[in-house]
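Why does residue order matter? Because the sequence determines the fold. Keep that principle in mind as you read this record.
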Amino acid sequence: MQLVRSDLEHVRKYFGFADWPNGSAQIDLGDRIVDVLPAPGHHAAHLLYYDRNTGLVFSGDFLLAGRLLVDDLSAYQASAQRVAEFLEDRPVSFVLGGHVEKNRSGELLPWESTYHPDERALQLTKDDVAALPAALRKFNGFYTETGPFVIENGLRILIAAAVAAILVLLILGVLIYRFVRRRRNPD
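Structure:
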């Protein structure tokens, strides 16, 4: 067994991707082949695995029952389209994401929670894969809920919150300055 570092250079070299993120690679396990597809967008070197024998798709954080965190929207959109096209004519039994962040009612669980009462099942479907490209086209760049998808860009949300906080502090500073000035000079 060989451990492969998760940075793009090592992933490309190990799997032999000459034209990243296009193409696919295979892992030969003897009597079973697992297809490996590049799926950047959440992480630059993200991979998705398709087991030909079982029809299982291991999607990690690329597609899961929870928040889809977008770091690079154009890469995510292109990956979603490539993956949907790859799986279109292949049997898919289940799509298994890296974790679950929703309850059975489809509501998001609290951010980074480790206690998941009434957690929904892990598996998604081939229809979820097929619907992902359209959902990503609706993404506003910050936070979008569309169908079963919750799509967000955490860095942009953090920057927007920081800018809003700075503006509130500036406005408060101006108001306090005016208040103090009026108290000192009542005319």
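The first strand starts at residue 25 and ends at 28.
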